[in-house]
Amino acid sequence: MFDFGRLSSRSPRMVVCPSSALEISALIRESAGGGPADLLARGCGHSSRGESLTSGVSLDLRGLATIHDVTGDCVVVDAGASWREVLKATLPLHRMPPVLTDYLDLTVGGTLSAAGIGGTSHIHGTQAANVIELEAVTREGEIVACSSTSRSDLFDALRSGMGRHGVITKATLRVIEAPERVLSYRAVYTSAAELIAAQGRLVADHISGQVKSSDFELNAVVYDKVDGPPSGLSPVDAEELAFIEFADRLSPDVEKLIELGEWDLPHPWGQVILPADHAAAIIEETMAETTTADLGFGEVVLIKRFRPGPVPMLRAPSDAVLFALLRTASPGCRTVAEMSMANERLYQRASAVGGVTYPPSVVSS
Fold this sequence. Notes:
- The chain is α+β, with helices and mostly antiparallel strands.
- The protein contains eleven helices and 18 strands.
- The protein has an eight-stranded antiparallel sheet. A five-stranded antiparallel sheet has the order 4-5-9-7-8. It has a three-stranded parallel sheet with strand order 1-3-2, with no helix packed on it.
């Protein structure tokens, strides 16, 4: 079995597709030694460093994908539901989760276990910071509900805990008003420092950044507004889109990558969360030694300044920058080993200034 990264494989002793928390509880209680040390939850398997792989019992949570209830303030969903499925349920009521992943075909439980960073995280924090309550099966096989006011220690351990403290089975998520249309503006800067500074001062509903060739591009999106770009932004172009078209903007790119065979190649992604005041120097240093061959087809490099919110397990600075090199070991480019070595250099640089890897590092069983 592989994950999206395809850097390693594991042959699980058993693959189980539970349809309820009770089934997961029974599995844990019946497992050898009375604990889930070799039991690992898996959603879409979109991890890049083997985090969703195990040689023990692999729990395929896509069988737990029900959207239970949507109200004006929250939506209750199973952990195996994708963000696309959540959005499909909330949009008819003109509601949406405050933070969405760029790629909607990831599971709720999967991104909450990592943290979940999106274009609105500069306002709302991570997806994990917008959870009202979780249902989970603990390491002892107990089915419990937890929140910031009830069993808060478990609540904090599960969010961004990478599955080490139990299996998330259901989540109650905060929802807010959804826009019908958006205006997306693109601006270009000459340095990482300028881009990061702009991300910190601009007022926009959705902010993200990328490295394109030698330029640093910023995308600032405003919801349901037609009165021009955010103050202080000098865009080079603008585009108006229906909100769902914007939210699902990666689908055409993914379809193209699948068609070209790139989607199934190894993806040695290198992702770190840096303190904002050290981020520009590390990004500039890393990009100075990074070529097209080091990134592979597409050359995707993301820069996103954000505020994590109250998620202790993420261990991120309060003013943070996500720096992500989404590498693909395309034919004719650097090897997986070479890309992985470059990632290790990035991890060391990040650690030296108080940064952390993203998703949080974990040793899988």
